[in-house]
């Protein structure tokens, strides 16, 4: 974002030819810089309305306004502005690449990978020495489950900018997703070594430790994070998640409730809903998960499936909402397959067939999730023996595990308490 602002500032300063236009354009940029996006949009409107604006400054203003629209998740408007900038011969190749990177990032967030890669490939093509292009394409590869390609791009970005700690952090997360925990650990260490304030890296590593059920290491990283940034609200997110996975629900809720508004709604509301679900406090779970789902412009498939299960277990019909989520979500095909199964559009056999992946770690994670959701549905149908078989398979998954593994443990306890000996 800082690089984009510098590029736009240079273009606007060089391209504006009237006294009034530079002022309104630069005022818009200043408002954008300080996060005053509505004000920025008003000034960019005036900026672009000036017929004396040079082609370069006009293209730069479209690039800037597109960036603001993307921040506000007004994606159609952002795409329109950024396409103008990307195609403008008046901009430098680096500025054009910035537009393609921004477009690729928007399409990635919408899971429209063909459009994402078309733009990101173009950014790499016109600026082959630009680490940001490789970083952005690596993110798209990672999100789409192409871990080998993501690692290659992050490695290329590191070759260009070896002191960027964020690149090692991204590659560490990708190595872990691919199942290469040794390489992931090595990159986390390198990220910490190259960052002057590595609190956020400790945060990410602590969450990886949590998913591996290495809770002592997770809490140790969170202590290091707190010493480096004692006022950082993300420490409460990390601790809340770790305590949730440990089954210490009251401690988890206590940590999550420390997160200030409005950050709580975006970063903790769904987690608190999941804790209520684990405790079988279904009305509270439905309340929090419903509120959390309204905060997402693109319906989050994770929230959608847990909300559906909470409603189903409490005797409510969540079918219409889940079907709407399936139609509107930008989740992966696997996430959509889970929703299709819950809706009855996909059989249990088809669900397990869809877990196949060239990556063993991905397949293991999907099996962990499939066993849980299938086991839960079997239990609701009254097939307790089959339900326990599936739930135990999820609960006994090899770390790093899915969150459903933790939910399976809680479900097994409830089932065996209701009907001992099964």
Features:
76% helix; mainly alpha; 0% strand; 422 residues
Outline:
The chain has 422 residues and is an all-alpha fold. The protein has helices at residues 2-15, 20-33, 37-49, 55-71, 75-86, 93-109, 113-126, 131-143, 147-160, 165-178, 181-194, 199-211, 215-228, 234-246, 249-256, 263-267, 269-278, 282-294, 301-313, 319-328, 333-343, 348-353, 360-380, 384-395, 403-418.
Give your account of this protein's structure.
The chain is mostly helical. Helix content is 76%, strand content 0%. It is built from 25 helices and no strands. The chain has helices spanning 2-15, 20-33, 37-49, 55-71, 75-86, 93-109, 113-126, 131-143, 147-160, 165-178, 181-194, 199-211, 215-228, 234-246, 249-256, 263-267, 269-278, 282-294, 301-313, 319-328, 333-343, 348-353, 360-380, 384-395, 403-418. The longest helix is centred in the C-terminal third of the chain and has 21 residues, at 360-380. The radius of gyration is 24 Å and the shape is globular. 47% of the residues are buried. Mean pLDDT is 92; it is low at 13-21.
Total beta strand runs: 0
CA-atom Rg in angstroms: 24 Å
Q: Which secondary-structure class do the elements indicate?
A: mainly alpha
State the helical fraction: over 70%
Oligomer: single chain
The coarse silhouette is: globular
Sheet having the most strands: none
SS strand fraction: under 5%
Mean pLDDT, to the nearest integer, reads 92
Order of helices and strands: HHHHHHHHHHHHHHHHHHHHHHHHH
Q: How many H/I helical runs?
A: 25
Low-confidence stretches: 13-21
For the termini, the CA-CA separation is: 57 Å
